[in-house]
Amino acid sequence: MELTGAEITIKCLQEEGVEYVFGYPGGAVLFIYDALFQQDKVKHVLVRHEQAAVHAADGYSRSTDKVGVALVTSGPGLTNAVTGIATAYMDSIPMVVISGQVPTSFIGEDAFQEVDAVGITRPCVKHNFLVKDVKDLAVTLKKAFYLAKSGRPGPVLVDIPKDVSNTKTEFHYPESVSIRSYNPQTHGDMGLVKEAVKLLLEAKRPMVYAGGGVVLSDASTQLTELVRKLGFPVTNTLMGLGGYPATDTQNLGMLGMHGTYEANLAMQDCDVLLAVGARFDDRVVGNVKHFTSVPRKIIHVDIDPASISKRVKVDVPIVGDVKQVLTDMLGVLAASKQKPDAANLKTWWQQIDTWRSRKSLTYKNSDELIKPQFVIEKLYEITRGEAFITSDVGQHQMWAAQYYKFDKPRQWINSGGLGTMGFGLPAAMGVQLAHPGAAVACVTGEGSIQMNIQELSTCKQYNIPIKIIALNNRYLGMVRQWQEFFHGNRYSHSYMDALPDFAKLAEAYGHVGIRVDKPSDVEGALKEAFARKDDLVFLDFRTDSTENVYPMVPGGKGLSEVILAEDL
Amino acid sequence: MRHIISLLMENEAGALSRVAGLFSARGYNIESLTVAPTEDTTMSRMTIVTRGSDEIIEQIKKQLNKLVDVVAVMDLTDGDHLERELMLLKVSAVGEAREELKRITDIFRGRIIDVSSASYTIELTGTGSKLDSFLQAIDHGLIIETVRTGSSGIGRGERVLKL
After folding, report:
1. Which range marks the domain in which residue B126 is found?
2. Which residue does chain A place closest to B18, by CA atoms?
3. Is B160 on the interface with A (CB under 8 A)?
4. What's the domain count of chain B?
5. Quick check: A305 and B58 CB within 8 A?
6. What is the mean pLDDT of chain A?
7. Under an 8 A CB cutoff, do B65 and A313 touch?
């Protein structure tokens, strides 16, 4: 049977088992929206801004391991989506973004709502396509889903001109596609796997550094088994939180710029480092020269060869899917007669425990001012550590990462690579739709929340009962902190004057808003919010405006050049 | 160090800009870049001349391989290879210079492919450095216009870049 390009687009989404499409209609996608209207398998969520559509698809994907799907119109629809696409790209999130384009005969004529979508998104997608012939549409969409999900995942854009979506052709959805130039390597080299296990067993001061790749590859079971068998210390990156249970004693907590003292020093002082699905980025290792000035052997497991030896040269490069390689390592380990050196390991743990005894995450609580760390600790208690937590970007993000102990992967949803303010609320919508009934909280600040606050309207339309935990300190807190530390207390444009009354604003959107001023009210407010299972509750916590995030490794410094809170 | 990287890529619209965009986005340097279709009409072959430390060149090759449109990558400088570049140049050729230019062109095995009463147009093929030498050998003041294709390269003997 012949179908129009628009009908084919929707059929393809159905074939892929897409549950939700997040989008916003417009001229160039009218035919696609018409086809969407005439079926009910694929549900559409109408956002209030295209950036939010992409973040919502992103949150949906991060919390489920499915491909997120967003649909936007040409021109401004696409340009608004770019921040969301770049966010997903930096964190390797599988996503397909479908954009409308002006009719093929108008392309290049500066037509109304025309932009070069493929050109604009090229640096921030895994791949993109402009479909000029409806006959190529089904196979292109199949390729898009395949590329998004396989290898190192990432967003793929499919740009569909309006005439293509209105032209008929025979529909056939291929079962599978192969792309001759694209063959991701999933199995690591067994020789290198054996060499890696040998190095680990001979290590005196071993360390495991696990990143977002563990979460993306669904390899936390394998990682946990390996780390426990070896008895080694482990640290998670911001993207990797939940990849290894945070409450386990072998976990030294997050590392990096705002990582724990023990995680950073163990990273710096180890003699054998196993890096898994991580990329030694600047927020993790700080100054590369400082980091590499200490001799250590590095084993690096990653699906993307380009991530290996990019910033830090490694000794044992293993290209492969993290889950597969860890499984192979466990096999080699089980077959080996050698055991880790217990005496050396004991000395190493004693050293780590000395660092740990500094209790680098200690903060001074107050009876008068709400401490942001206290709010997160209470949030953790009240949700019994089981909530999905999304965050925006800034101090609140770091406090959420430090004080909420994530024991499971895909529970912590944040924009790690791009650092996109405005991510948290729309991402939480995607998470809640993927997990109806689950507790979903968006930890945010009064700065970030205003970057996509219009989505409160979407939440009303679709009854999305997320809890917004706003740590409102009247400052762009992380900017203020850097200005305090490095710019002589000159708080240039980091003060938020004329803030709205968030509780009333939430009410105006039809939600529940609660303002909390006193530390003694924090627990009660959180309990009330989570008891209201069917309501979106906006909790406006007026927190201490001068609180800083500690520990801190300043930009360009080494991991051992850390600033601790004053009284430590 | 100078490297000559050859790649086969899908003959798709936009494939060239993916490669060019990669170099500019990551701050890699391009000395020259040439591209044209191959005997297999689905593929184009590109030769990129670049400079960088071993680590940078390694990254360039990995990042090129990562592009979905790139089918195969080979660093010709890793082994024996041939390199050729074509230059066309128009020179002012009057009086004594007319004879002198003809002689130098012969020495460099170039050809004069167009003649006017006041100028020659010379065609010269060779490695980039040979073309540079030619430009140094003639009086710089006589040069009216030059155009160079950038280097193309191919492996020697059994060394091939094919799908």
Report:
1. 82-152
2. A122
3. no
4. 2
5. no
6. 97
7. no
Domains plus CATH for chain A?
2-170 (3.40.50.970), 190-356 (3.40.50.1220), 372-542 (3.40.50.970)
pLDDT score, position B52:
96
Say if B9 falls within a structural domain.
yes
Among the listed residues A143, A162, A297, A371, the single catalytic one is A162
pLDDT of residue A83: 98
Instruction: Indicate if B52 and B91 belong to the same structural domain.
Output: no
One-letter amino acid of A78: L
Q: CA of A98 to nearest chain B CA: how many angstroms apart?
A: 18
- B91 & B142 share domain: yes
CB-CB neighbors (< 8 A) of A124 in chain B: none
Would the pLDDT of A91 be above 70?
yes
pLDDT at residue B13, rounded to an integer: 86
Residue B163: pLDDT above 90?
no
Same domain for B143 and B89: yes
Taking 70 as the threshold, does the pLDDT of residue A567 lie above it?
no
Give the Å distances, CA to CA, from A140 to A265, A293, A351, A375, B129. Answer: 48, 48, 55, 47, 45
pLDDT band at A1 (very low <50, low <70, confident <90, very high): confident
φ, ψ of residue A179 in degrees (nearest 5): -120, 115
Residue in B closest to A305 by C-alpha: B62
Among candidate residues B18, B52, B79, the one where a domain is terminated: B79
At A568 the pLDDT is: 62
In this structure, are residues A165 and A101 in contact, taking their beta carbons and an 8 Å threshold? no
Q: Give the Cβ contact number of residue B2 at 10 Å.
A: 12
- Read off the CATH number of the domain in which B65 is found: 3.30.70.260
Instruction: Exactly one of A329, A421, A451, A478 is catalytic; name it.
Output: A478
**For this structure, is A114 an active site residue?**
no
B47 located within any domain: yes
A478 tagged catalytic: yes
Q: Give the distance from residue A452's alpha carbon to the nearest chain B alpha carbon, in angstroms.
A: 29
Residue-averaged pLDDT of chain B: 96
Tokens at B150, concatenated: 């950038």
B66 and B93 belong to one structural domain: no
**Closest by Cβ to B66, choosing from A179, A306, A313:** A306
A23 by DSSP, 3-state: which? strand
Measured between alpha carbons, how far is residue A26 from residues A50, A71, A162 in Å? 11, 10, 11
B32 & B8 share domain: yes
Rounded mean pLDDT of A195-208? 97
What angle do helix axes A76-90 and A50-64 make, rounded to 10 degrees?
30
Angle at A177 between CA A121 and CA A85, to 5 degrees: 20
Please report whether residue B140 resides in a domain.
yes
Q: Could you confirm whether A113 is annotated as catalytic? A: yes
**B100 inside 8 A of chain A by CB:** no
CB contacts, 8 Å: B14 with chain A? 118-119, 122, 130
Find the CATH number of the domain harbouring B92: 3.30.70.1150
B87 pLDDT higher than 70: yes
Nearest CA in chain B to A312: B55
Domain assignment of residue B162, yes or no: no
Question: Which of A112, A120, A105, A221 has its CA nearest to residue A167?
Answer: A105
A162 among known catalytic residues: yes
E strand or H helix at A195:
helix A190-202
- Subunit contact B68:A179, Cβ cutoff 8 A: yes
* Residue A148: predicted pLDDT: 98
Q: Are B52 and B109 in a shared domain?
A: no
Residue A130 touches chain B, beta carbons under 8 Å: yes
- Evaluate if residue A566 carries a pLDDT over 80: no
Which of the listed residues B22, B51, B79 is the one where a domain comes to its end?
B79
CB contact under 8 A, A181 and B62: no
Do A181 and B69 lie within an 8 Å CB cutoff? yes
* Residue B160 pLDDT > 70: yes
- Report the share of chain A in percent with pLDDT over 70: 100
Question: Considering only CA atoms, which of A159, A4, A150 is closest in space to residue A70?
Answer: A159
Instruction: Assess whether B6 and B75 both reside in one domain.
Output: yes
Do the beta carbons of residue B120 and residue B114 sit within 8 Å?
A: yes
In this structure, the answer to whether residues B8 and B70 fall within a common structural domain is: yes
